[in-house]
Amino acid sequence: MHPALTVTRTAFEILVGIFFMFAVAAYWIFERDKAIGLVQSLVPRESRRVTRGHVDLIDQKLGAFVRGELILIVFVTVVLSLSFWAIGLPYVLLIGTSAESLEIVPVIGPLVAGALAVGVGFTQSWHLALVAGAIVVALRHIEDYPRRPEGARARVGLSRSSSSSR
Predict the structure, then answer these.
(1) Distance of alpha carbon 22 from alpha carbon 14, whole angstroms
(2) Which residue blocks in the chain are alpha helix, DSSP H?
(3) How many CA atoms lie within 13 A of 78 on its CB side?
(4) Nearest to 115 by CA among 85, 95, 97
């Protein structure tokens, strides 16, 4: 009984965390100016303009990062779906949609999407599973190593010197 309660509690905590994330995002979208006004009222009058500039800069950088991640998620989903279709993997739309949904979770999501593709490949043959796994690994290497850090840095507007000095 104890493991079932632990799993249920963990699942509930995850759902609450997801709900909280969406609630904060909605609040920021609809009540942004009021929230900034509250922050500005907490700082001395001579620092309010600088504070507003910092908040606007954070908002721009965070928005650019989120837009870039969404573009990357769509790109990965399309490439995986087309690749899986080309090798004859069944349930391409289901796997592609799952890959898109799981790509949001940074490290674990792509691994689970790859495991799903390999698992579906095993239903046909081990050759198909091997090729599906190779496609996922190749795309992960292309995405993670040479492109992702540079692309994120460019989308957010950071120079190489400012990111390497931290």
Answers:
(1) 12
(2) 2-42, 48-87, 92-102, 108-122, 126-142, 148-156, 160-164
(3) 6
(4) 95
* Residue labelled with tokens 């599906």: 132
Q: Which two tokens stand for residue 122?
A: 């095993």
**126-153 residue pLDDT tens:** 999 999 999 988 888 887 765 555 555 6
pLDDT for 99-125, tens place per residue?
877 877 777 877 888 899 999 999 999
User: Which one-letter DSSP state was computed for residue 90?
Assistant: S
Tokens of 147: 């492109």
Tell me the CA end-to-end span of the chain in Å, nearest whole number.
47
For the stretch 64-101, pLDDT in tens is 888 887 888 888 888 888 999 999 999 888 888 888 77
Residue with token string 């769509």: 74
Is 113 within 8 Å of 102 (Cβ atoms)? yes
The HSE-up count of residue 24 (CA atoms within 13 Å, CB side) is 6
Q: Is the pTM of this model over 0.90?
A: no
* C-alpha distances out from residue 77 to 33, 71, 149, Å: 35, 10, 19
